[in-house]
Amino acid sequence: MIKKIIFASVFACLGYFSSASAQQTLKLDSLPKVHHNIFINTDTVAVPVVSENPLTMGGNFIYKLRLDSITKTVPLPYNEYVQQYIDIYTKRKDMFGKMIGLSSYYFPIFDKALKDYNIPQEIKYLTIVESQMNPHAISRVGATGIWQFMFGTGKAYGLKMDNFVDERKDPIQASYAAAAYFRDAFEELGDWLLAIAAYNCGKGNVNRAIDKAGSRDFWVIRQFLPKETRNYVPAFIAAVYVMNYSNKHQITAQASNMFLKTDTVQTTRFVSLSTLAKVLNIEEAAMMALNPSYKKKIVNGTDDEPKRIVMPKLKDADYAGIYDVLNNQEVDVSMKVVAASTDDVRDLRKKKTKSVAASAVVYHKVTAGQNLTAVADKYGVEVQDIRVWNGLKSKTLVPGQKLKIYAKNHKPLKAPSSFLSYKVKTGDTLSEIAEKFDGATVQSIRRDNRLSKAGLQVGMILKISKG
C-alpha cells in the first residue's frame, strides 16, 4: 500500500512537470518582451553550451522550435552559424519586406518547376540568397539571373543564350533548369544540404570535401568547403526562417510592382515588347519585368522555336490592337540569331592568357623621339600592356631601348636565314659588338658562335644574326 502511494506521488510529479514544460513550450512565442529578453543569448559566435535541458539555451531555443515547426524535407537545423545569419537578416527589414512582396509573383513559378521535378519546395528560398529575386542580377564572376547560373552550367541544363535572349534571366526556364540540377545533385550526393552546397560551389568541390572529412554531414565537411559555401547553407536556413517568421521580427510585406494576374501566349513571330506595352497601356518597364530575358526588347519567335510572352491580365484591354501587334506588325531588326560566347569571367581570363601566349613576340628597338603611344599604335596594342610586359615604371623611353611586344598582327620571330660577319678588333667586347647591330644581344652572339666564354680573340670572325 505504501509502495502504491509512493509510485502515485512520483507519477503525479512527473505529470506536473511534463504539463508545465508543455505549457512553457507552447507559450514561448507569446512571452512578454521583458521576460523574453532575459533569456536571449547574444553570443552568436561561440558554440552554444550543450545541456540535457534545452531550455538552458534561453531565448535562442525559440529559433530551434520555429525551425523545427517549418521543417519538411530539407533539414533546417539550428546552430550558431544559422543564428549569425538570422541576426543579419532580421535587421534587413526593408530587403525582406521586398522579398515577401516579390514572392507573391515568383514563388508560384518556382513551386511549379520544383514540383514537376519532385524537388522540395523549400529550395525556392535559395533565390533570396542568390539574387534577392532579381532576374538581372550578375555576380562578379558572371553568374546571371534569379537562380545565378554560370554560362556553362546554364547551357548544360538547356538554357539558351544568344544575341536576342538570355534564358538565365527567364524565371520559368531558369527554375526548371535549377530543378533539374537539384535532381542530379541529390541523386549523386544523397543529402539536400549537400545538394544545396553543390549548387554554390559545384558537386566536385563537395565530393572532395566529403573525401577529406570522411563524412557526408554538411556540418562536418563544412571546414573543407570554399569559404562562401560554408556560409551559404546557414544563410539559406536563415532565409527560410525569416520568410516564415517575418511577423515575429517586425518585417512588413512591401507591395510588388509586378502584375500578379497574367496571361501567357506563344508567338512564332518577332514581336516588339515596347509596342505591345503601348497597346496594353502599361509602362515599358512593367512589360520587361514580366519578360526579362529578351535583350533587345524583342521576342524572336519562329515556327521552329515559338517564344513565350507574358502579359498582364487587363479587363479593358484593346484585344484588336494586341492581335495586330502579335500577328501583323513587322519588326525592323535582323533576324539572324548568333549564339552568345561565355561571360564566365574565369573562362575569359583563361582565354586572354592563351591569346597572349599564342601571340607573336616582337622586340622593338626604340628610336629617337619615340614614345609609348607611338609604339603601341604601331603594333596595335595598349600602352598599359607594353608597360606590364616590360616592367616599366615610367612612360619615358630611351633611344636604343628594347621592348618586348606581344603582337597579334605580327608573325612570330623565326630563326635567321643569314648572318652578317664581324671581325673582332683590339679592345672589342661582346656587349660593344651587340650594340653595333640591331637585334643582336650578347646571348645571341654567344649562341650563334658557340662561345663558351665571353673572352674574344683579335681577328676572330663572328656571325651576327640580322635584326
Automatic annotation (TrEMBL):
Domain LysM: 362-405, 420-464
PROSITE patterns for this protein: LYSM, TRANSGLYCOSYLASE
Keywords: Signal
Keyword DNA repair recorded: no
SUPFAM superfamilies, A to Z: LysM domain, Lysozyme-like
Record InterPro entries: LysM, LysM_dom_sf, Lysozyme-like_dom_sf, Transglyc_AS, Transglycosylase_SLT_dom_1
GO MF entries: peptidoglycan lytic transglycosylase activity
Pfam families: LysM (PF01476), SLT (PF01464)
A GO BP annotation: peptidoglycan metabolic process
GO cellular component annotations of the record: membrane
Signal peptide as annotated in the record: 1-22
Family: Belongs to the transglycosylase Slt family.
PANTHER family: MEMBRANE-BOUND LYTIC MUREIN TRANSGLYCOSYLASE C, SOLUBLE LYTIC MUREIN TRANSGLYCOSYLASE-RELATED
Name listed for the protein in its UniProt record: Lytic transglycosylase
Lineage, broadest ranks: Bacteria, Pseudomonadati, Bacteroidota, Sphingobacteriia, Sphingobacteriales
